[in-house]
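My main concern about presentation is that the manuscript never shows what a single data entry looks like. An entry of this sort, consisting of the sequence and the corresponding backbone structure tokens, reads as follows:
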Amino acid sequence: MHETRATRPPIRRSRAGGARKQPVCYGDPQASSPTLRAAQRGHRKGQLAEAAALYRAVLDQDPTCLDARVNLGSLHARAGAASAARALFVEVLASVTDPRALRDVAFGLLHIGALPQARTAFERALEGNASLIGARLGLARLCGELGDHEAAVHHARRAVHDAPEEASAHLELHRALFDDRALDPCIEAAARAVSLDPGYALARYLLAGALARSGCVDEARQALGSEGLIEAGLVDALWYALRPGLRCFSTKRATLLFALELAPSQGPVIDLGVRHGVSTRLLAEASGAEVHGFDSFQGLPESWQSRPAGAFSTAGELPPVPPSVRLYPGLFAETLPPFAATLREPPRLIHVDCDLYSSAAEAFSCLGPLVRPGCVIVLDEYIGNASFREDEHRALHEAAARLGWRIDERCLNWITGQGVVLVG
């Protein structure tokens, strides 16, 4: 459903650029129109609807205004209006050469799940200004999620070369190099990030995981730092994940592909929590199966963690998907029962990206009786937050107890928060 979680150790953006919630300004502020300045003030104060209206007024007068186009696109992206955001961002991508604007457009495209276009924007930004470290780090992460491991490593190494004192560059290299069966290179990168920024909680968390997985448990405990630096629930999640024989990957893509390899070759794939459709499209492409995607497209039905009800909404907008995908808009309680009643074969894989315990429990209540031994269940937030034992994890284990499943955990990702289980 989404890519970032407020309850994980905070993601440190490079000081040299990256995603912004504040308005951008590429020209001389004093030379901009009063309407544009008013829009940016409202944007800065969180008066987003008013700011959007003012940005549109600016564009009515001057359709080429770069500040208004990028900022309005960013507001659309934050509101979940992906098609409106994409239209503005693609227009900028086709007509602008300013590297800073291209970088910001790339992050905006990432936010709405337009990954290939985001890669193009990052690459063009770096062609114009190779020193934009935020763009370099964003491109490294994106290449990993697109499955281009070689490019991910290249860009992460380049970021370290260009900004050797930037802790986030070394941590991105850790992600790019991560291999749960050959951990020394990524441990070195994460250790360097911690040495540069001892208060960098995410770096400590990832370093501790790699150290413990390599057998250096005492060093891993030391790497976690002082008590309270990382939430106790996340430390619990880390130790839960660190058991012999379980796989771990540094990207969601790799986890989903691993799960598909475990799954039977027949049966539909069910995706619970679609949002912008990134995982849905990957599952369809990689499996060759019929994929059924369920989402209200109105965001969370209740508050969760620090997110209010309605967070992650697409304002009812459905994402672009291939012909092999069928989308079912609405709450699970409304859409899953009639679907389950007509399903003629057991699912091969169920992807649970519900976040909420209540949503995951509803899904298992409807789909659980259809599950047969050999089905693979991927949970996006299985260990991905400090309250993981009360969220998707709890819903799965309650369903297993009720339905008599044997849960065989095959992959627990302390990096992405995902879990892959095989039902026996």
User: Anything to note?
Assistant: The CA atoms of residues 147 and 254 lie 8 Å apart. The beta strands are 269-272, 291-295, 325-329, 349-352, 376-379, 407-412, 419-423. The chain has 18 helices and seven strands.
